[in-house]
Queue: 4 jobs
Job 1
Amino acid sequence: MTVSEAVVKRLFELCAERGITINKISTIAGVTQSTVSDIVNGATTNAGIATIKKLCDGFDISIREFFDNPIFDDLEQEIK
């Protein structure tokens, strides 16, 4: 799994835990729906840390909490 795939998976996981949609978290976090849609649909493969921070704020978690998840334990090597 790539980093971008893991980020998407984590976003869906957090939304499911809270019973909200991807569109709802984008509204809560103040991130445009098109930006979040691009991340989720793979159009953007490098979500910026500022965007992830805003989404974390919307989830009321820290960046550390976002990445402290087994999803990120076995990522593919990005350097090829």
Note: The radius of gyration is 12 Å.
Job 2
Amino acid sequence: MKKKISLSSAISYIFVAMTVTFCLTMIVSSKIFEAKVDSVSQKEIMYDKISDIDKSVRQNYYTAVEYNKVLENMSAGYIKGLGDSESKYYTSNQVGEYQLVMDGKIIGIGVDFIKSREDSGYMKIYKVYTDSPADVRGIAVGDKITAINGVSTIGMSLENANEMLSGVSGTTVDISYMHENSEKQISLTHKAYDASSISYLKEEEYGYISISAFTKRTASELDYAVKSLTDSGAKSLVIDIRDTISKDFDSAASAADVLLKEGTTMYAVYKDGERKVLYTSNKSATDLPIVLITNSRTGYASEMFAMMLKDVSGAKTVGTTTMGKGTLQKMFRLPDGSGVELTVAKLSPVTSDSYNDVGLIPDYEKELDPSIESFHTLPMSSDPQVQRAFEVAKNLVSSK
């Protein structure tokens, strides 16, 4: 039996609903207004401070001011003031270089090197890129960089050496290097050159793939490598992402898509606290067991790639704990051509806990012996981490 509601009761209900709606609207509006007022107040304080500094400089600084330089440094300082080491400011030239790297090009002289334990710590070259400035001028694997722009590399850190050798296209760097027991001096001009991010080979029953970076071409290169190795009879895949520090998260997700079944591969938690789907896979998964090799210089996009494979396909990891860079950065272009790379979210794996500031702890820990200079200079048969990965892969195949 339906109960009838009187007209007066209905009017009362409507009035109550309108009152509640009005109150909620006022509360929300009040909060928005307060946030805007607070934002305006903060902006006024910030602009007033800059104005006061500018006034003091114009009145008292002893020489002419390069205002373009001031503006660039001030912009960089704003981003640095966030206290987030992953957020950065880029000049318009740097944005162009950044995009070239994302497209699969390398900017530099064309060598990879380690800090040698011999010769008082010179930089030993272990890779020379084809058609790079170094390659064209005859620099070879095994040569040692002894000085950069007149500064000896003895006592220089690997990071400082890389920084001193870097530069935008068209700029030059002077290096001294040892080649076949004789020292040479040369000036090299930085330029962009193509470099594959994938190398692969079949070792017995294993398909070995090395990923040096994640770029827009990595997914197609990986797809080709996997098909080639599968066609040649590989029963498992060992993917080496040691020393792979790349921030192209979209390209890493596309590469993972080559290997993973359909479904969600990564979530992200944004400013509002909401967990949203970030990446999905829509391709057929490979049915080959996968083992990943990681180390303390496996970071950013490569860590995300590894976590996707672990969570979604059950891939195993061998090596040492990764960097722990579990946040997402995006580049935002500014009207004048410059840009800011900002951390926009915290990555949230499908099933595992966040690895930010923690890193991915390997399923099978295997460190390099301290006596080994670098895995880059080891033949595969003598690389303990690769050999351990092959053992794990073999066990995975036999247990299928």
Note: Residues 22-29, 31-36 have pLDDT under 50 and may be disordered.
Job 3
Amino acid sequence: MKLVIAIVQDADVNPLVDELTEKKFGLTKLSTTGGFLKSGNTTLLIGVEDEKLDELLSIIEKNCKQREITTSLLTVTMPGDAFIPYPLEVKVGGATVFVLEVNQFVRI
């Protein structure tokens, strides 16, 4: 058995959770915040049997697409001057997935 930890951007999570639920994958959904853009994301904890891992990973890949957004990075030109927003193109979306081996699983 594996524990899959999937960190997904909020924009991608609803269709992903809908499909996982439809395909009978049990999951726990946690609201989290990314450190770089400080924007909302969701962390899913999913217990899965080894033989269903590939199916799970393909569902995640299908529902979590990477895209580019423009955000502003604040810069200072001189000490005492105002902050000047600097546009920055960054890639967001997709998913960060960790797959961990589970030694014991108990449902109480």
Note: The chain has a mean pLDDT of 83.
Job 4
Amino acid sequence: MSSQPTASGLAGRLPFHYGWAVVVAGTVAIFACLGMGRFALGMLLPSMGQSLSLSRSEMGWISTGNFIGYMAAVTMGGRMVARFGARRTIVMGLCLVGLSMILVSRAQGVLQVMILYVLTGYGSGATNVPVLGLIAHWFGRRLRGRAAGFVVIGSGFAIMVSGALVPAINAAHGAEGWRLSWLVIGTMVLVAAVIDLAVLRNHPSELGLEPVSGSAAPPAAGPVPVCAPAPPMVKRRIIAHLGALYAVFGFTYVIYATFIVTTLVQERGFPESTAGWFWSWIGLLSLASGPVFGGLSDRIGRGKGLMIVFAFQATAYLLVALPLPEPFLYLSIGLFGLVVWSIPSIMAAAVGDYLGPEQAASAFGTITVPFALGQISGPALAGRMADSWGSFSGSFAMAAVVAAAGIVGAALLPASRKH
């Protein structure tokens, strides 16, 4: 017997629209694929590097390998969703993330870790793109940004969890504690895959539902206006524009996320424990970033929302670049944490606005390619600049200038279409 009637019956008994259950499952997916699959690495590298005698360059290549795998997945995201459906693609991606991380716990050298972490990155990309693409199917334009905002904060929860879990395991198990950390985290990702398999659905129609519209009043009588498809040239320009803005975000945020703790410890003289506490605060503050600014973009428009977020980020980067007193560092961390996951949520909503729900997953996969390229190139260029200048000040200043260019680019976005 098909499980469809059971799922449909459950949706009818819930005190809320099933779309919000999809949001919760999406948050779990992002927690696992990006939060644990990518952002936990910073906590794992020190002890793993010492155990495997990794150089700083080798540590960097491990991180780069993850981004390469991620980019490979997002280039095929639309085709994977078209062939398997979003739900199956997400579950398969999470299984790949979880299994590859479990295998890293048995690795004996840098080459094994790098190959496995490329697979982790591939699974992360195969999960992230269709998860955010689902939002365009389940939510109308009025709530699309807010819903996507709740999904992307999964990474913030993961930063907080890994920041507490990994040091505790290392303290209990010594030099080889990193292996147990990889095993535990990989197992958590597999549990997330089971949750998403049970909860996610590709489209509201599978449960006999309509998308969550967020309408303040019932529609007026008369024929419903249909949004005519945008011409191909217009679609290409929109995708290129959004992709460029997403690349700006990928290039700049990863510089800050990669090097802020190192800067605080090595250049500003903070104890490692204090710098780690700051990182935990970024994770905590980030829980509001997606819902608040995604919801704001629902009301004021995607372009204006992006302008505000890029302004926050540019200011955060500049405050670290300049030789300012210590309180300005706290302000920088606060500004960055408040908006760190905002742009992915706005972008996920924007592709649905401009191109329609049916093309949202494919379009989001397309604009994620330049985002991934930005993530790959940002840390490499910033690290090279730091070696030449003797500090990361120039790197953060560069990030501030690029983010300021993002403000200008966001201002030039055309008004979004209504889907």
Note: The two ends are 36 Å apart (CA to CA).
